Amino acid sequence: MFFNRHLLSVTLLLGSGLLLSACGPTADEASATVISGKTMGTFYRVSVVGLDKSREPELRRQIEAQLAEDDHQLSTYKDDSVLSRFNQYNGTVPQPISSGMADAIVTSLRIGQKTAGAMDITVGPLVNLWGFGPNKEPVKMPTQAQIDSAKAEVGLQHLKVIQQSDGQYLQKDLPGLYVDLSTVGEGYATDHLARLVEGNGISDYLVSVGGAVVSRGKNPAGKPWQVAIQKPTDKENAVQAIVDLQGMGISTSGSYRNYYELDGKRLSHIIDPATGRPITHKLVSATVIAPTALEADGWDTGLMVLGTDKALALAQKEHLAVYLITKEGDGFKTNMTQQFKAYLRKGEKP
User: Fold this and answer.
1) 92 vs 271: CA distance, rounded Å
2) 307 and 300 in contact (C-beta within 8 Å)?
3) Rounded to an integer, what distance in angstroms lies between the CA atom of residue 31 and that of residue 223?
C-alpha cells in the first residue's frame, strides 16, 4: 500500500450541499451507482450516473483489478512490487517499467525541477529515516549524521527515464537510490480509474483515491460535481471552500493530521529534501486543480514543502490554480491564485 499522506483532506460534496463520507452511498446518490472501499492505505470512491445495475459487479471487478495493479506497480510496502524491486536493485542497468509508471516519474521529475527540488521522489531514505515509510517510527530523534547520510542517497539528478522502441526503462546512477512515489500515487490511481470509467461508456462520474479527485459531467441532480476543501481541523465535515471542478483533477496535501510526536515535538510527514527534516513552517494545506489528478498530486506536495510565500510566488509564475491555508495566530489565513478563483462555487467568497 502507499503511505496515506492525504488522510482524506478533501471531502466530496454533491450539488445539494450534502457532505459525503469517505465511503458508502448517501441518500442524494440514490440514482447513482457508488462503488467504494479501501486501497493503498486509504479509501477509494467511484460515483457514476446512468449505469445499469446489472453492470455494477463487472465494473467493481475492473476497478479493484486496476487498483491492485497500480499498487503492484508503485507500492513501497510490498517487496515484490515493480518499484520495490527497482529500489532493491543495487546496480545502474536500466530496469523495465510500465508506461504508466514512466509517465508518473516524468511528471514528478518535471515538477521537481520547477520546485527546485522541493518535490523529490528520491527522498525515500529521509522519509524512512523519520518513520513515515515502511519503517517504523524512530524511538529517538535522528542525529545530524544520520540525516546527512540519508541525504547523500537523495537527488533527482540520479534518476532517469529512458524511452526506447521496446518500452520504457528507469535508471539510477546511484545504486542505493530509493524512489518513493507515494507523493503522486493517489493521483496516478485516480486518473486510471477515470479512464477505466470512461472506457465503460460512462460520461457522468466522480472518482477519488485518498485526497485526489477527478470528475466529469453532472451529478445525479443534473448539477456539476463539487468538492469541498476541509478546514485544517480534526472535524471531518468542517468546510473551508467549495469548488466546481469543471472536468479537472484536484488534490490536497496537508500537514495537520499526518504526524507523530517525538521528544515533545510534533513531526510532520512532509519532509524538506533541502534540510532532511520535517517541515516546520506555517503552511498547513495546499490544494491544486490541474488537468489531471497526477499533475495536481505532484504539485501539492512541492508547494507544501516550499511554504506559503514561495509556494504562492511559484504558483503565480506557473499559472497554477492553487489554494493555500496557513496557520496564523489562533486561526488560519487563506491565499489563492487568480486561476483558482475561477473554480470557486458561485456565491463563494474569494
Assistant:
1) 26
2) no
3) 13
E strand residue ranges, 77-211: 95-97, 159-164, 167-172, 205-209
CA distance 80 to 152: 26
Contact 213, 252 (CB under 8 A): no
- Over residues 124-175, the pLDDT tens digits come to 899 888 887 766 666 678 899 999 999 999 999 999 999 999 999 999 999 8
Quick count: other Cβ atoms within 10 Å of Cβ 17?
12
pTM, whole model, 2 decimals? Answer: 0.87
User: What are the domain boundaries of the chain?
Assistant: 1-350
The cell 532493491 sits on which residue? 88
Please check whether residue 58 is in contact with residue 23, taking contact to mean a CB–CB distance below 8 angstroms: no
Number of neighbouring beta carbons within 10 Å of residue 13: 23
> Where are the extended beta strands (E) located within 23-119?
32-39, 42-49, 95-97
Q: Residue type at 99? A: S
Residue 239's DSSP bridge partners are 230
Nearest to 315 by CA among 336, 343, 294, 346: 336
Task: Please tell me the CATH code under which domain 1-350 is placed.
Answer: 3.10.520.10
Helix (H, G, I), strand (E, B) or coil at 336: strand
Residue with cell 515484490: 80
Percentage of the chain exceeding pLDDT 90: 62
pLDDT at residue number 234: 55
